[in-house]
Amino acid sequence: MFRYINLFITLLFSSSLIAGPEDWRIALCISEDPQHEMNVSWRHVIELDAPRVQLALNTPLAKFHKDRHDFNVDTESVVLSDSTEVYAYSSKMINMKPGTSYAYRVGSEAEWSEWFVFETARSTQDAFRFLYFGDPQNGLLSHVSRAIRAGYREAPDAAFLTMAGDLVSVPGIDQQWEDLFHAGAWIFGQIPLVPVMGNHAYYIHGKWLDQHSPYWRPHFTLPENGLSTLAETNYYFHYQGLLFVVLNGSEQLKEQAIWLDEILSREESTWVILSIHQPLYSTGQGRDGAKRRAAFLSVIDKHEVDLVLQGHDHTFGRTYPLKAGVAVQNGEKGTIYINSVAGSKQYKLEPAIEDVFAITDANKQFYHVIDVHSSKLKLSSYTVDGELKDEVIIKPSLNR
Ligand SMILES: [Fe+2]
Ligand SMILES: [Fe+2]
Predict the structure, then answer these.
(1) Is the same domain home to 186 and 325?
(2) 169 Cα to the center of ligand 2, angstroms
(3) How far is the CA of 99 from the centre of ligand 1 (A)?
(4) Residue range of the domain that includes 164
(5) Which end of the chain is more exposed for a tag (fewer CB within 10 A), N or C?
């Protein structure tokens, strides 16, 4: 009898420890050069023997993977706050053709994920769309799942998916990452992610610290073309006529403003979109973005940035086109700022902001689709039930 109990305990222990591919937190991530490269991260509770990423052209043939390429994988040991050791894997899929559909899978000979399908960016300035979400952070499995699924239903062809910070509330609690990746499920393996770091990445062991948590970088493989001191939290990429820049709103703001001015001074893309977690203009009651305005506003105005995607205030708001903090007149070019929230935590609205915000709302979950054309941008904001709440057309800068 004892032997059977022992066997049962062993099986129970093993099955909970060795999770299947649905628990591997597979994240397809944007690269610096999405015409030719994509990145992928995943993790496992065991150290895999010879982990690999396999890539093949996505053809209708059932044996499409006969002709495939294997990529090497970096393995990193990660010690969780309960002292459990897990393994983070990351790889870069390179030398791909622009505008081409590929399939990839991750794992090792012992076990593979399913094949995920994605498309590289085109070399021409064809129209495309992408998905933007505000803070997931709370109610990750219970609430964020429906926001991600509703966004996917609206734009299954999204070129990428950005989340404007506070992906989880307490990054040292591994279950929160588990819930986020269950909410994103296979969508996170199939649409390249563009994660933005929020202040909650700095909330460690119940304290706010100067350095972000060690659990961000193992979950994602991102461009390292921003400030070297802010690797994988400050970066940019180009996508079919768009420059997309991710800022870290928590530290080195002055240094990032100098860096931003430099890259925008040589930029020739039709469109420039920034994302920063902490907003320049707040919708949350009693909150203010004075620090970010002091750092970035003059650079944003100087280069006529088209759109700034933000989070942090757990409310929704979309500004008029602004220059120097004032709504522009007579169709003049200005920058539109948007705040949003995807998760369950909601704040009260700041009432005294009507001169800056064209529309605000509270106590709801949102998702957004940005359509990028050569002559116009369309920003569509939806509540999580699929109702179009706000739509605005943006014309390009004539001075870039
Ligand atoms: Fe935040
Ligand atoms: Fe937040």
Answers:
(1) yes
(2) 7
(3) 35
(4) 128-394
(5) N
